[in-house]
Amino acid sequence: MQKLKNQHLPEAFAYLAPEPEFNLFALGDLEQFGMEGEHVACYTADSWMPGHKFPYFLLDYRGNFLVYSHDLDYDVKTTGEFLAEKHPENISGKSELVDALLPWMDNRERKLTYLARLNQVTGEQLQQAGSLLTQVKRMREEDIPAIYDLYIQIDEFAATYRNKAKEACYQDIRMNVLTLGRSYGIYEGKRLVSVAQTSAENRRSAMVIGVATLPDFRRRGYARAVVLKLCQDCLKDGKEFLCLFYNNPAAGVIYHAIGFQDLGNYTMLQNPALRTGAKNSQ
User: Fold this and answer.
1) Torsional sign, CA 16, 20, 22, 26
2) Within this chain, do residues 172 and 252 fall inside the same structural domain, yes or no?
3) d(CA 160, CA 93)
4) Residue 224 is part of a domain; what is its CATH number?
5) CB pairs under 8 A, 24+ apart, for 3-9?
6) Residues 114, 246: contact at Cβ < 8 Å?
7) What is the model's pTM?
8) What is the distance between the alpha carbons of residues 171 and 176, in angstroms, rounded to a whole number?
9) Among residues 55, 12, 71, 215, which one has the least CA distance to residue 20?
10) What is the distance in angstroms between the CA of the first residue and the CA of the last residue of the chain?
11) Do 268 and 90 meet the contact criterion of CB atoms below 8 Å apart?
């Protein structure tokens, strides 16, 4: 496996371009950090020569690997053995590509999600959100503790946030609030009750992540309003589309009502040891 350098960026962008939705995280990371930054490393086959098409492409962002190939019959064995040695926190990508790695990924938890895309926000959708849209505000540095406090009360996020040092969690949130994307939320009084963020923002697109509403405030339209305002502002700023992942049917109903359309399946192979905090000290 050879490690790529910044001089190979044009070839990487060209290789990822045919499926920008499935490669949104990779495209955003490459635009933000390049291939030789502190947070990102990229790999392909030892046999690859500049000027030729990659046989496959791997991107490592802080121990989270993205896998992509134009070909379903890529060198799964070499890729699987390489990733097994790296012990990443997560391995993700199109289901057809990542599921083939399972024989080399002992004790991994497979999480299947749906990838959906939004191209526009209509006046009808904004009207359906009603007056809640006026309560949505963009999150700033001072809102980071409130975002953290909300996430640790949500089952989907609690395991990750409770088993990680608070300052490390703050830093992860700060990256999305200030660097990799943006965050929007709704307060009721002094309590943040709903939030949504983007990550991997790039010239063309952004990924919606971290959509969460406190249990006592669900089914009131908060998530719809926050995601709509977030998407509306991203599109106003020149993004062509936004994507998100979901695996909760109830969430799918909300996203489809907003205008997201399913594109395909996306798999994440999670390392349960890292997720439960067994190696948080590393």
Assistant:
1) positive
2) yes
3) 21
4) 3.40.630.30
5) 3/41, 3/42, 3/43, 4/35, 4/42, 4/43, 4/44, 5/35, 5/36, 6/34, 6/35, 6/36, 7/50, 8/35, 8/42, 8/50, 9/34, 9/35
6) yes
7) 0.82
8) 9
9) 12
10) 25
11) yes
219 burial class (0-12, 13-18, 19+ CB within 10 angstroms)? exposed
Based on the fold, state whether residues 79 and 213 are members of the same structural domain: no
Distance CA 131, CA 98 (A): 42
Residue that has been written with the tokens 């609030």 in this structure: 177
Q: Any idea what DSSP says for residue 218?
A: T
What single-letter DSSP state applies at residue 49? Answer: -
Q: Determine the structural domain holding residue 27 and report its residue range.
A: 2-106
Domain boundary among 61, 79, 106: 106
**Cβ proximity of 169 and 121 under 8 Å:** no
pLDDT in tens, 24-78: 999 999 998 999 988 899 999 999 999 999 999 999 998 999 999 999 999 999 9
Longest distance between any two alpha carbons in the chain, whole Å: 59
